[in-house]
Amino acid sequence: MRKKKHGAERIAACADLLIADPSVLLTDPQSPFGTARPLCLEIGCGKGAFACGTAAAQPDINLIAMERVADVACIALERAAAERELRPGDNLRFIIGNAQNLSEWFPEHCLDRIYLNFSDPWPKAGYAKRRLTHVGFLEQYRRALKTGGVLLFKTDNVALFDFSLEQFDAAGLEVLWQTRDLHNSPYGEGNIMTEYESNFTVKGFTINAAAVRFDKKAD
After folding, report:
1. Which pTM was predicted?
2. Annotation says 120 is catalytic
3. CATH (residue range 120-219)
4. 112-164, pLDDT tens digit by residue?
5. Where are the strands (E) in 128-213, listed by range?
6. Are 177 and 218 in contact (CB under 8 A)?
7. What pLDDT digit, counting tens, does each position of 24-58 carry?
8. Is the alpha carbon torsion for 60, 49, 82, 31 positive or negative?
9. Of 16, 21, 120, 169, which is the active-site residue?
10. Which one is the CATH code of 1-107: 3.40.50.150, 3.40.50.720, 2.40.128.630, 2.40.50.100?
Protein backbone atom coordinates (compact mmCIF):
# COMPACT_ATOMS: atom_id res chain seq x y z
CA MET A 1 0.00 0.00 0.00
CA ARG A 2 1.16 3.52 -0.83
CA LYS A 3 2.39 5.40 2.23
CA LYS A 4 -0.32 7.53 3.75
CA LYS A 5 0.24 11.28 3.89
CA HIS A 6 0.43 12.44 7.51
CA GLY A 7 -0.12 8.83 8.55
CA ALA A 8 1.45 9.22 12.01
CA GLU A 9 -0.70 12.26 12.76
CA ARG A 10 -3.83 10.50 11.53
CA ILE A 11 -3.11 7.50 13.72
CA ALA A 12 -2.45 9.79 16.68
CA ALA A 13 -5.86 11.40 16.13
CA CYS A 14 -7.42 7.96 16.80
CA ALA A 15 -5.23 7.25 19.82
CA ASP A 16 -8.20 6.42 22.04
CA LEU A 17 -8.87 3.36 19.83
CA LEU A 18 -5.24 2.22 19.72
CA ILE A 19 -3.46 0.04 22.26
CA ALA A 20 0.14 1.17 21.91
CA ASP A 21 1.65 -0.28 25.09
CA PRO A 22 1.70 -4.11 25.34
CA SER A 23 1.97 -3.95 29.13
CA VAL A 24 -1.61 -2.69 29.26
CA LEU A 25 -2.90 -6.01 27.91
CA LEU A 26 -0.37 -8.13 29.76
CA THR A 27 -1.55 -6.60 33.03
CA ASP A 28 -5.26 -6.81 32.25
CA PRO A 29 -6.43 -7.56 28.68
CA GLN A 30 -9.90 -6.24 29.50
CA SER A 31 -8.67 -2.88 30.79
CA PRO A 32 -8.90 -0.96 27.46
CA PHE A 33 -12.66 -1.55 27.42
CA GLY A 34 -13.85 -0.80 30.93
CA THR A 35 -16.41 -3.61 30.76
CA ALA A 36 -15.28 -7.24 30.80
CA ARG A 37 -16.76 -9.36 28.02
CA PRO A 38 -15.59 -12.40 26.00
CA LEU A 39 -12.35 -11.22 24.39
CA CYS A 40 -11.75 -11.78 20.66
CA LEU A 41 -8.82 -11.01 18.38
CA GLU A 42 -8.74 -10.48 14.62
CA ILE A 43 -5.26 -11.00 13.18
CA GLY A 44 -4.66 -9.00 9.99
CA CYS A 45 -7.65 -6.67 10.09
CA GLY A 46 -6.86 -4.83 6.86
CA LYS A 47 -9.00 -1.73 6.38
CA GLY A 48 -11.29 -2.67 9.23
CA ALA A 49 -14.60 -3.65 7.59
CA PHE A 50 -14.82 -6.97 9.45
CA ALA A 51 -13.66 -5.56 12.78
CA CYS A 52 -16.06 -2.62 12.67
CA GLY A 53 -18.95 -4.76 11.45
CA THR A 54 -18.38 -7.48 14.02
CA ALA A 55 -17.99 -5.10 16.95
CA ALA A 56 -21.24 -3.36 15.97
CA ALA A 57 -23.13 -6.61 15.44
CA GLN A 58 -21.84 -8.27 18.63
CA PRO A 59 -21.94 -5.73 21.47
CA ASP A 60 -21.56 -8.62 23.93
CA ILE A 61 -17.88 -9.14 22.98
CA ASN A 62 -14.70 -7.07 23.20
CA LEU A 63 -12.70 -7.16 19.97
CA ILE A 64 -9.06 -6.30 19.39
CA ALA A 65 -8.02 -5.96 15.73
CA MET A 66 -4.31 -6.44 14.93
CA GLU A 67 -2.67 -5.11 11.77
CA ARG A 68 1.08 -5.11 11.16
CA VAL A 69 1.13 -2.43 8.43
CA ALA A 70 0.69 1.02 9.98
CA ASP A 71 -0.64 2.64 6.79
CA VAL A 72 -3.36 -0.01 6.58
CA ALA A 73 -4.14 0.28 10.28
CA CYS A 74 -4.54 4.03 9.76
CA ILE A 75 -7.50 3.41 7.44
CA ALA A 76 -9.06 0.90 9.86
CA LEU A 77 -8.69 3.29 12.79
CA GLU A 78 -10.28 6.15 10.87
CA ARG A 79 -13.14 3.92 9.82
CA ALA A 80 -13.70 2.80 13.42
CA ALA A 81 -13.66 6.40 14.60
CA ALA A 82 -16.19 7.42 11.94
CA GLU A 83 -18.49 4.53 12.88
CA ARG A 84 -18.14 4.97 16.63
CA GLU A 85 -21.87 5.62 17.15
CA LEU A 86 -22.65 2.15 15.77
CA ARG A 87 -20.82 0.61 18.75
CA PRO A 88 -22.66 1.71 21.89
CA GLY A 89 -20.62 -0.79 23.89
CA ASP A 90 -17.30 0.88 22.94
CA ASN A 91 -15.99 -2.64 22.32
CA LEU A 92 -13.33 -2.23 19.59
CA ARG A 93 -9.62 -1.49 19.91
CA PHE A 94 -6.62 -1.87 17.59
CA ILE A 95 -3.01 -2.99 17.79
CA ILE A 96 -0.35 -2.16 15.23
CA GLY A 97 1.78 -5.27 15.57
CA ASN A 98 2.85 -8.63 14.19
CA ALA A 99 1.19 -11.97 14.98
CA GLN A 100 4.66 -13.43 15.48
CA ASN A 101 4.78 -11.45 18.73
CA LEU A 102 1.45 -12.46 20.28
CA SER A 103 3.11 -13.49 23.54
CA GLU A 104 4.44 -9.94 23.91
CA TRP A 105 0.88 -8.59 23.84
CA PHE A 106 -1.36 -11.20 25.45
CA PRO A 107 -1.10 -13.22 28.66
CA GLU A 108 -1.82 -16.92 28.57
CA HIS A 109 -5.39 -18.12 28.06
CA CYS A 110 -7.11 -14.74 27.87
CA LEU A 111 -8.82 -14.95 24.46
CA ASP A 112 -12.14 -16.60 23.70
CA ARG A 113 -11.88 -16.40 19.91
CA ILE A 114 -9.41 -15.60 17.12
CA TYR A 115 -10.40 -14.56 13.60
CA LEU A 116 -8.14 -15.14 10.59
CA ASN A 117 -9.64 -13.56 7.48
CA PHE A 118 -7.96 -13.90 4.09
CA SER A 119 -4.44 -14.13 5.43
CA ASP A 120 -1.49 -13.94 3.04
CA PRO A 121 -1.21 -17.47 1.55
CA TRP A 122 2.59 -17.27 1.16
CA PRO A 123 2.34 -19.72 -1.77
CA LYS A 124 6.03 -20.58 -2.15
CA ALA A 125 6.88 -23.84 -0.39
CA GLY A 126 9.80 -22.27 1.45
CA TYR A 127 7.45 -19.76 3.08
CA ALA A 128 5.13 -22.28 4.74
CA LYS A 129 6.17 -21.23 8.25
CA ARG A 130 4.98 -17.69 7.52
CA ARG A 131 1.39 -18.83 6.95
CA LEU A 132 -0.80 -17.85 9.87
CA THR A 133 -2.25 -21.35 10.04
CA HIS A 134 1.15 -23.05 10.24
CA VAL A 135 1.43 -25.25 13.32
CA GLY A 136 3.97 -22.81 14.78
CA PHE A 137 1.35 -20.06 14.83
CA LEU A 138 -1.33 -22.49 15.99
CA GLU A 139 0.70 -23.19 19.12
CA GLN A 140 0.88 -19.45 19.78
CA TYR A 141 -2.90 -19.29 19.47
CA ARG A 142 -3.24 -22.24 21.85
CA ARG A 143 -1.24 -20.30 24.43
CA ALA A 144 -3.36 -17.16 24.05
CA LEU A 145 -6.77 -18.85 23.83
CA LYS A 146 -8.72 -20.15 26.78
CA THR A 147 -9.26 -23.90 26.91
CA GLY A 148 -12.05 -24.54 24.42
CA GLY A 149 -11.33 -21.29 22.57
CA VAL A 150 -12.15 -21.18 18.87
CA LEU A 151 -10.33 -20.05 15.73
CA LEU A 152 -12.54 -18.92 12.84
CA PHE A 153 -10.75 -19.00 9.49
CA LYS A 154 -11.78 -17.72 6.06
CA THR A 155 -9.87 -17.76 2.76
CA ASP A 156 -10.53 -17.80 -0.97
CA ASN A 157 -7.26 -19.68 -1.51
CA VAL A 158 -7.92 -23.42 -1.89
CA ALA A 159 -4.28 -24.40 -1.46
CA LEU A 160 -4.04 -22.44 1.78
CA PHE A 161 -7.28 -24.01 3.00
CA ASP A 162 -6.03 -27.53 2.29
CA PHE A 163 -2.72 -26.72 3.99
CA SER A 164 -4.58 -25.29 6.99
CA LEU A 165 -6.72 -28.40 7.44
CA GLU A 166 -3.53 -30.49 7.48
CA GLN A 167 -2.02 -28.17 10.08
CA PHE A 168 -5.13 -28.29 12.25
CA ASP A 169 -4.86 -32.06 12.26
CA ALA A 170 -1.12 -31.96 13.01
CA ALA A 171 -1.79 -29.67 15.98
CA GLY A 172 -4.48 -32.00 17.31
CA LEU A 173 -7.28 -29.47 16.91
CA GLU A 174 -10.95 -30.33 16.67
CA VAL A 175 -12.53 -29.06 13.45
CA LEU A 176 -16.02 -28.03 14.50
CA TRP A 177 -17.09 -27.39 10.92
CA GLN A 178 -15.68 -26.65 7.51
CA THR A 179 -17.09 -25.60 4.17
CA ARG A 180 -15.81 -24.89 0.68
CA ASP A 181 -18.63 -22.44 -0.04
CA LEU A 182 -19.36 -20.35 3.03
CA HIS A 183 -21.98 -18.06 1.51
CA ASN A 184 -24.11 -20.98 0.34
CA SER A 185 -23.78 -22.99 3.53
CA PRO A 186 -25.59 -22.92 6.89
CA TYR A 187 -22.40 -21.47 8.41
CA GLY A 188 -22.76 -18.27 6.40
CA GLU A 189 -25.62 -16.95 8.50
CA GLY A 190 -24.55 -13.70 10.15
CA ASN A 191 -21.24 -13.68 8.26
CA ILE A 192 -19.51 -10.27 8.29
CA MET A 193 -17.53 -9.75 5.10
CA THR A 194 -14.13 -8.13 4.75
CA GLU A 195 -13.41 -5.69 1.92
CA TYR A 196 -11.46 -8.43 0.15
CA GLU A 197 -14.29 -10.92 0.60
CA SER A 198 -16.87 -8.52 -0.82
CA ASN A 199 -14.78 -7.85 -3.92
CA PHE A 200 -14.07 -11.50 -4.64
CA THR A 201 -17.62 -12.64 -3.96
CA VAL A 202 -18.88 -10.21 -6.60
CA LYS A 203 -16.46 -11.85 -9.03
CA GLY A 204 -17.91 -15.29 -8.30
CA PHE A 205 -15.22 -16.70 -6.03
CA THR A 206 -16.33 -19.14 -3.34
CA ILE A 207 -15.10 -18.75 0.21
CA ASN A 208 -13.53 -21.57 2.22
CA ALA A 209 -14.07 -21.43 5.98
CA ALA A 210 -13.57 -23.49 9.10
CA ALA A 211 -13.97 -23.30 12.86
CA VAL A 212 -11.52 -25.17 15.07
CA ARG A 213 -11.45 -25.60 18.83
CA PHE A 214 -8.32 -25.47 20.97
CA ASP A 215 -7.94 -27.59 24.08
CA LYS A 216 -4.89 -28.10 26.21
CA LYS A 217 -2.05 -29.76 24.37
CA ALA A 218 -1.73 -33.42 25.28
CA ASP A 219 1.40 -34.33 27.24
Report:
1. 0.94
2. yes
3. 3.40.50.150
4. 999 999 999 999 989 999 999 999 999 999 999 999 999 999 999 999 999 99
5. 145-155, 174-179, 208-213
6. no
7. 999 999 999 989 999 999 999 999 999 999 999 99
8. positive
9. 120
10. 3.40.50.150
